[in-house]
Amino acid sequence: MTDDADAAGRRLRLDISPLRTSPDFRRLFAAGVVTYLGAMFTFVAIPLQAQQLTGSFLVVGALGLVEVVPLIVFGLWGGALADHVDRRVMILSTEAASGVCALLLLANALLDEPHVWVLFVVGALFAVTDSLQRPSLEALVPQTVEHSKLAGAAALMSLRWSVGFIIGTSIAGLLASYLGVAVAYAVDAASYILSFLILLGLRSRGRVSSEDGVPGFSAIAEGVRYAWGRKDLLGTYAVDTLAMVLAFPWAVFPFVAESFDAPWALGLLYAASSVGATIASLTSGWTSRVRRHGRAIVVAASAYGLAIAGFGLSPTLWMALLFLVVAGATDMVSGLFRTLVWNQSIPDELRGRLAGIELLSYAVGPQLGNARVSLGAQWRGLGASIAFGGFACAAGIAALAFALPTMWRYDVSTSPEVEEVRRQRALDAARDDV
User: Fold this and answer.
1) For residues 43, 79, 421 and 203, what is the CA-based torsion angle, rounded to 10 degrees?
2) Among residues 154, 140, 375, 336, which one has the least CA distance to residue 240?
């Protein structure tokens, strides 16, 4: 009986072998923890400062809207650059630029009368640097670990986000509320300095493309055509976008805390979903044995929508927090399987451009979602806006599964794209050994 329990525990346990075997993956992981931890201070501080300066749902929601265009334009171009330039150089330069953005927010917060417009401008600049960096980061991860360890790498990279979110938002909510948003911005700026020093140790792998010059629209269009031609892949982007647009209530958390007469709980609201995500990551060993990734994505994303609906309808703070924990766990499961589809089946020469498209799904979606829930709260009430979005998300995911049957049927054991990527990476590894 004990042996069976030990075996079950090993099957559930997080695979940390990528950290043991790859120095570059360790650097990406460590820098990601530091950066994300610091970024959460700004993530909490910007909407809180906007609420303090204006008290307006509309202003808080509009903060997300100004990031949409930069995310779309620079996300797609950043993906093309990731397939064209040295990814290490791109990561380092954008990390430094993000640090400058944090310093601008700090300078504004230290003014006697901070300007609201600075929050919009710097928010857009953050979107530019993030859009240029993320495709290179996402494209570099599969190059740092063996193909067989991609499930563990995906879980570890997700874990750094959830842990950073828990710690960052929990501390930032208290720190920004009681010591002021300037302190939160200062912490974020310091985190960029540390993460830059960690990333300096990354090994350069050169350029994926042999073409000279700056990539243009044709390079972006090639990635879009590839995604459009694979409806299973397209479905993963659509699922994530739909879930975030309809069921992402983070922008109204300051108002939710206020509605429960619990301003001290702001950090807990931000952190609760990441508690669920961390639990899902730490018990993610089972994901490497699942073959039908499409079905797993659909089921988990639908459950996420229902959990957000429950959050919106919760009569007490503690019930609301519980639903957010469930939402975080189900969203993490959906995200792990989406990442596996991306990392296991997209060829390296297109990985940056497809990472740029991924960025649109998981970065633009939340910005639109923040605007949707804020506008809905202004017109229909806070709880109703959140709950409506959650139910609409679950229904929309089911409709997507019906409209894109190849996504629902996606099976990693029979996918020809997965087999081709596995073969190519084996050849690359053999060449590196020589």
Assistant:
1) -80
2) 336
Query: Hey, what are 71's tokens?
Result: 């995310």
Q: Nearest CA to 42 among 136, 129, 135?
A: 129
Structure token pair of residue 181: 């948003």
Alpha helices in 283-345 (DSSP H): 293-313, 317-345
**What predicted TM-score, i.e. pTM, was given to this entire model?**
0.71
- Conformational region of residue 50, where left means phi above 0, alpha means psi within -120 to 50, and beta covers everything else: alpha
Q: Which helix (H) or strand (E) holds 117?
A: helix 116-144
Q: Identify the burial level of 398 via C-beta atoms within 10 angstroms of its C-beta, where 0-12 means exposed, 13-18 middle and 19 or more buried.
A: middle
Per the CB < 8 A criterion, the answer to whether 147 and 344 are in contact is yes
Asked whether 34 and 198 are in contact (CB, 8 A), the reply is yes
Q: What distance in Å separates the CA atoms of residue 125 and residue 120, rounded to the nearest whole number?
A: 9
CA distances from 420 to 150, 338, 425 (A): 15, 18, 9
* CA dist., res. 9 & res. 151, Å (int): 17
Burial of 414 (0-12, 13-18, 19+ CB in 10 A): exposed
Using alpha carbons only, give the angle 76, 146, 423 rounded to the nearest 5 degrees.
80
Please tell me the distance from the alpha carbon of residue 271 to that of residue 191, in angstroms, as a whole number: 19
Express each pLDDT in 221-257 by its tens digit.
877 888 888 888 888 889 988 999 999 998 888 888 8
With cut-offs at 50, 70 and 90, classify the pLDDT of residue 36: confident
Mean of pLDDT values over 154-169: 76
In the block, tokens 């919106």 appear at 312
Would you call 260 exposed, middle or buried from its count of C-beta atoms within 10 A (0-12, 13-18, 19+)?
Answer: middle
Average pLDDT taken over every residue of the chain: 83
N residues, the chain: 434
Q: Which two tokens stand for residue 174?
A: 């208290």
- Whether residue 179 has pLDDT greater than 80: yes
Tens-place pLDDT, residues 291-332: 899 999 999 999 999 999 999 999 999 999 999 999 999 999
Q: What is the pLDDT of residue 47?
A: 83
Which of 21-25, 40-44, 320-324: highest mean pLDDT?
320-324
Q: Do the Cβ atoms of 86 and 206 come closer than 8 Å?
A: yes
Structure tokens at 220: 């972006």
